[in-house]
Amino acid sequence: LGPMKLEPKPPKASVARKRRRSLKVEKVKPEELEDTISKEKTETEKTIAKMFDVLKINKKVRLENLVLNRISFAQTVENLFALSFLVKDGRVVITVDDNGSHYVSPRNAPAASLITSRKVVYSHFIFRFDFNDWK
């Protein structure tokens, strides 16, 4: 490979540049394109709206009757997904009676001030549901 020189090299001098400060502060607001704004509801939003409309008409509905689609497992999972949004937002409440049946009822969502002051506390639960349960 050849002889190697082990002589130390002097370090390169670094030059610090000063940044120029802009005298004018401009706020940048990008132009919104018409194509990127979606005004149509997604399928999940439509399912949530339909489910809440059913709950407004029938004040107390069994969970199985609201979620279960005996023909399609995929639609059952979509219904359960939509119900999870309603529960998370505080729009519905799920209660269990003495026989172990689950009932879903609509309710008004709590005000934002109650949530921030922690007078209203959300509780979560795990709902196990698979293909064998659906069968």
Automatic annotation (TrEMBL):
Domain Non-structural maintenance of chromosome element 4 C-terminal: 61-135
Basic and acidic residues composition bias: residue spans: 1-10
GO cellular component terms attached to this protein's record: nucleus; Smc5-Smc6 complex
Organism listed in the record: Helianthus annuus
Leader sequence residues: none
Function: Component of the SMC5-SMC6 complex, that promotes sister chromatid alignment after DNA damage and facilitates double-stranded DNA breaks (DSBs) repair via homologous recombination between sister chromatids.
The keyword DNA damage is annotated on this UniProt entry: yes
Transmembrane intervals: none
Protein name: Non-structural maintenance of chromosomes element 4
Location(s) in or outside the cell: Nucleus
Subunit structure, interactors included: Component of the SMC5-SMC6 complex.
Pfam families referenced in this protein's UniProt entry, alphabetically: Nse4_C (PF08743)
Family per similarity comment: Belongs to the NSE4 family.
GO BP terms in the entry: DNA recombination; DNA repair
Region: Disordered, residue numbers: 1-23
Keyword annotations: DNA damage, DNA recombination, DNA repair, Nucleus
